[in-house]
Design goal:
single chain; 312 residues; Alpha-Beta Plaits; 2 domains; 38% helix; globular; disordered C terminus
């Protein structure tokens, strides 16, 4: 029977998760997510015809218990978010993360990436990077182009995606992956480092997300906490600002508004992606660390961090 199991599938099921969650249901969840990502994402975003049919079926029941259903949907959204996270990153840090050229186990990162489930970043064979057709864009009625912009990093994830989706994925070098990051950032799209408990509790992808197609960004706007701030906010130098409005037009989180006095950056809404900083023609915006935001994912700092020595 083994011969019917593809090598990448065997590798995924035999790889030990680094968060201790080795339940079969979690492993099967991860398999379904990686094997049928387009169906999975389109169902999660409600874009699939089956999702719309299920929604209509539930509408009748909601008439009888609207408040209970509303609370149940909110609880379901929180549970989903606790298992599937995106960490917003400035594009330069995303480039460093994707170019790590050695296997890395950075230990317990709960204080650095404050997610319930994402305890570790582990990259085995990180030089293996796959560019996958974005499931969010593929399920969108008017998708942004190009679509092959989801970067799956390390094993067993990259090999699994490449083996199961040969027509939608291709191997890329770290240099080409960085070019994809830069090109997407120039288009005004946001870099997210993604974690999911069913994906062995590990970092597995950098996605280049647009607000019109990305299911995580849309869920975030609707109050489901699936995205964490980069730890920075954009700050404006009023003396340099020429009040062109470019920053407000490009901001993917709608954190910048224009008033009679010029741009106003909402520090609560700003996720610190840096898209506006690079788009400003007057170089009047800068990303600065914000004390009330979660800590940045400082890749260089994490790699150089020394582990505590065991007590004698």
């Amino acid at each position: 029977m083994k011969k019917w199991i593809q090598p990448s599938t065997r590798a995924f099921f035999t790889e030990k998760p680094r968060d201790g969650n080795d339940r079969l249901v979690s492993r099967l969840h991860g398999y379904v997510y990686g094997r049928w990502p387009y169906f999975y994402i389109s169902m999660a975003t409600g874009r699939h015809a089956l999702a719309k049919y299920v929604s209509k079926m539930l509408a009748f029941a909601r008439m009888f218990s609207r408040a209970d259903r509303s609370r149940a949907r909110a609880r379901a959204g929180i549970r989903f978010a606790n298992r599937y996270h995106g960490k917003v990153m400035p594009v330069q840090e995303a480039g460093r993360l994707i170019q790590i050229n050695k296997s890395v186990d950075l230990g317990d990162l709960e204080q650095i990436i404050p997610y319930e489930r994402a305890r570790r970043i582990v990259l085995n064979n990180p030089g293996h990077i796959v560019a996958l057709q974005c499931p969010c864009r593929a399920s969108s009625p008017n998708p942004c182009e190009p679509q092959q912009v989801c970067l799956i990093a390390g094993e067993p994830f990259a090999g699994f995606i490449l083996e199961h989706h040969p027509g939608k994925a291709r191997s890329v070098s770290p240099q080409e992956a960085c070019r994809i990051l830069e090109q997407e950032h120039a288009r005004g799209h946001v870099q997210h480092a993604f974690f999911k408990d069913a994906m062995l509790g590990r970092f597995y992808a950098i996605c280049n997300c647009c607000s019109c197609c990305c299911g995580a960004m849309q869920a975030h706007r609707n109050g489901v906490p699936m995205l964490a701030s980069s730890g920075y906010v954009a700050e404006l130098d009023q003396e340099l600002c020429i009040q062109c409005g470019e920053c407000a037009d490009i901001c993917p989180f709608q954190a910048i508004t224009i008033s009679g006095e010029g741009p106003d950056v909402s520090q609560d809404s700003c996720m610190g992606c840096g898209v506006c900083v690079n788009r400003c023609p007057a170089q009047g915006l800068e990303l600065k660390r914000h004390k009330d935001k979660c800590p940045p994912l400082d890749v260089d700092g994490l790699l150089n961090r020394r582990r505590p020595q065991p007590r004698q």
